[in-house]
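LAB NOTEBOOK - FOLDING QUEUE
OPERATOR: T.R.
BATCH SIZE: 2
PURPOSE: Compare the predicted structure-token outputs for two unrelated chains run back to back under identical settings.
PRIORITY: normal
REVIEWER: second-year student, initials M.K.

ITEM 1
FIELD SEQUENCE / FIELD STRUCTURE:
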Amino acid sequence: MAEVDRLTSEQFGIPGLLLMENAAVGATLAIEQHFGPVQRRRVRVFCGKGNNGGDGAAVARQLWMRGAQVEVLLFGKRETARGDARVNFDIVAQLAQASPQIRLVELQSESDFAALLNNSPSRFNLHVDALFGTGLARGLEGMFVKVVEYLNSTRPYVPVCSLDIPSGLAADLPHPVGVHVVADLTVTFTAPKVANVLPPAGHVNGKLRVVDIGSPESLLRATPNHRATLFLVTEEGVRAYLERTRRMPDAHKGHVGHVLLTAGSRGKTGAAALAGEGVLRAGAGLLTMAIPASAQALLVSQCLPEAMTLALPDDSHGRLTEEGLRAGFAAANQHTVCAIGPGLGTDPAVRRLVQWIVQEGQSPAVLDADALNCLAPWQTGRGTPERPIILTPHPGEMARLLGVSVNDVLVDRLGAARRLATTHHLFVVLKGYYTLIATPEGDVYINPTGNAGMATGGSGDVLTGIVAGLLAQTPHLPLEATLAAVYLHGKAGDLANEALGERSLVASDILRFLPQAFKFQSSAG
């Protein structure tokens, strides 16, 4: 972001002071949209000496212009501020001489801050946090610890809006580096930062709003020294994919893909049924479900009548025979997409089948659950542009694929997903709160939909089906199909949560609300 700001001024002639003004106008509008009109409200703005504090001073002026009574607390001397921040502090100081509705107070120490609080008769309706922005790399110290503790202690009676990022967070890290502000609203500029989004740091941002301050879109994708590799999945992007792939009026089932779902076993047919319905609800034209022959009857009783089944020969213990292995491999190469794993088991015959499909198969593949465990640790098998391979592990499965501990994955989810994806040219969907989608090129997309109610058995099986169903319709767009599948899966879960609550939500509820999620995207905007 520092590079983007610099090049915005150098290459396009947009001065930093104008960018700061655009940020202030956008933040003020976001504040009014979130908290309501500011006229006659009392607002206290907490400013550091840097550019984030300059943003705060500019926001204070915008709030004052809309009729708020504003007090700006500058932690440091105005004379030591530099550049655009100094300009905005000077403006506030000049306005304070002409209007009793805006005030600038310079504070040098913790005792100054304590004295201010003790002698302040007024109660405030809103606090604006503009202490530290994206340049912070280590934990806060000294008086700033006390200031942040005070801001947090006044919530929820006095809500907090943070500018760019809650003070005390390091922008590039998902884990807090020390004491930090807990915001009700965070207005970030140009693009989200890691700590705006990824948990646990993302949890303290409150409602996140992104404000465009005028940097050209081309700079956000690539600058001479940096290439953006981290992206947020958006409703607009998913809607664009669905519009782009809308069915023609004369489409028939053969036009929209045939999925082979190799899943289920004795006692685990429910996983296959959930994944199968996900395939069809996502819009695939045809579904064939391959399952050991001895479990076929139970699957048929649980599954959609629209699905076909393929019985794979097995023995008296439910294990695939050599004939079953050959039939499973042959079928995998005869369909638009092969999805494999939910409820399949991990006996030696299944392991052979999964490894055979991954190493020598020809159809695009979606691997989940037991299929991933059969391949852990991942040593062989690479995706190609013609034959993409998509993995959908949860953190435990991811740890086994990489041969590391679960804690290693959780500490660096971005790095774990990116490492597996780039090493073996895979698409990796690392499930969890804010699911990550890593590409073979090393880009990582963060999905914002979903909720804790989806932490229930079968939720991942539904996702496998949705990914396979969308991929079957657009096998030439594996990334777009995967991003849409993850987003819509989470959106359906959010709709189910709104209707039913988190505690009682089960995986089949995600399927129940999936059509509504698709319809919502089609009608939005």
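ITEM 2
FIELD SEQUENCE / FIELD STRUCTURE:
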Amino acid sequence: MADSYRRASSIGLTATVGAAMVGALLAPDEGWAQAAPDAGAQADANEALTVVGQRADFQQTKPHLSRITTSLKDTPQSIAEIPQKLLRDQNDTNLLDALRSVPGISIAAGEGAQQGDNLSIRGFNAQNDFYRDGMLDFGSYYRDPFDIDTIEVLKGPSATLFGRGSTGGVINEVTKRAQMAPVTAGTLSFGTDATKRLTIDEDVSSHSLGGSAIRLNAMVHDAGLAGIDDAHMRRYGVAPSFAMGLDTSTRLRIDYLRQQSYDTQYYGIPWLNGRPAPVRRSNFYGYADSDYLRSIVDSGTARLEHDFSDSVELHDQIRYSSFHIGQRAVEPLLLNYGPATDIVTGNPPLSSLNVMRNVLALSGPSTLLDNQLEGTARFRTGPLRHALVFGFEVQHQTADITRYTYPRIATSLLDPMQDAPFPYSYTLRSVSSSTSNDTAPYLNDTIDFGKRWSVIGGWRFDHYTTEYNQIVAPAVHVSRSDDKPSWRGALVFKPAENGSVYFSYGDSFDPSGENISLTAATAAVAPETSDTYEVGTKWDIGRLSLTGALYQIEMHNVRETDPSDATRTILAGDYRSRGFELTAAGHITPVWEVFGGYSYNDVVVVSSPNPLEIGNSPPNAPKHTVALWTEYSFPAYRLTFGAGVNYTSSRTASSLPQAGTTIIERAPGYTTLQLMAKYHINSHLTAQVNVQNATDTRYYAALHPSHIVMGPARSALFSLAASY
């Protein structure tokens, strides 16, 4: 049934986009008459290379998140806004590819129920810090950007805005919502890595019902992984959006997302003596005919807004999401030749080493019910001008996960058997049920005094509870309740209209039950806490935004295993991150544009009950990251060329040495190059090619203490995009 649905969806979407592209190809070319150099339009040359209805600009000026009332320039926090133009020009087909455009982000690998998008921001894990239009996007799945308009990366603690987590920062996905401006667009892509991809975006509106609109975004994606044997991704998505009252003071929005994936999951290669095993990139250690990762995401959101006046607005937003995961994948582990599973003593030939196929298998649903009641009020108290945001949030999350144990079968490290039969017999490993609840009032006030000064203060109080039950022996029933306030304060000085200098402080916390899971050990410990100090400056110079920031993050009470009792977890660790970053976004000239920057993070374990850990870097915390994308346009020839460089320095998979050794698992740094060329056939239709990993660099894209996910080989993606 699912395969039939996918085929029917693909046929219908292909017909829709094909018709749009034929119409675009036959459309008159009047839009280009104004782009000729002798028309005196050089100052608007970049706009001439824009798909109709979309501004060609990487520069963003205002956060989309309603809880932030200031412009980006005046917001005392490092925020990277990945605009729709960059997503389109890089032709990103998953969210992680888009996030590689932001310095300070490093990609990590997941395991078990923690699959999907996994990353660190400023050296701290942020897998549980994804938000969608300001509300928690909790599912452990691989997000497709087909319905995303902008991605906001808010760095540093944001607990007063979002609640628990957010030590290094959060990701907020801003979706394509129904609007009064009409849209008809589609993209058809084919790749050398067997990619076949189709997207559509259609918005129709009417002035009936006070201004109503319906928008539909849809996607079908089928792809391999360049240079990796047997890995495969299949998914489809549909995201309708409806709005009414857009021309009035009372507005209703209803949005829905359905994304379903069926992948042959690639779990990478094993570690060998603390380094990635020297094997072929193409090696696939799983069971190609039996491995899978299935995910089904359904998320519905309703938002009612009312403007009481020009200065007072109130809205209520409610969301119900369900997420179902099913996984059976192989983690390749070296057989125990030494004191730890990936340590080989002596100097045996690689051809004599075997890998154990550790099957990870689980299934089960998770749900989220989230309601946010929020208001904004602008008013004066004497000479002070206030922009006050106040709200109350209630969350209810559940997770019911069943895990299975399969026999472990050995295969060769250098030449794994691709056609080995799968051992279908299994036993139940665990059956768990967990529930988390969070209730939280919050306030954020921006106070302007004079022409040059602002003070920002924020407060939130979370009552967070988790209950966990496991019914397969040994049976477990534990619970945890935490009451935790969060604070934020900042001072902003504006020496000129186009610039600001700021100092900010904020804190955050990570409760034991943050992942909707507890153990007898973790239920007894209080939340981890973090403090961040940041000083920075932001300047808008024409259509170019420049930012710089210095920061320090201190994470206290890090959960550690008690060295005297392995069954106990204690709060004994401290991590510290010190760094700075420089970024640029926008136009250097009318035809030359840039996005990205450099980030330096010095993250160390300051204290730990294990002395071998002190002074090491926490997992997935590279010291240097560079993410830079640039484009140059030739309006007279209807051409745009782009190139991007990503650099990640070496990083560790764990701060702890391998058991019984002093060996730290570390992957080397790498640099990758991306290229783009776009030809504007006419004002409605463009042809584009993107080359990923153009130098065919061998690199390690994501780390886990038990395995390493290799980065894909060089590939090219060819696309036709139509827009009216």
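REVIEWER COMMENT (ITEM 2): Residues 1-17, 22-55 have pLDDT under 50 and may be disordered.
FOLLOW-UP: none requested
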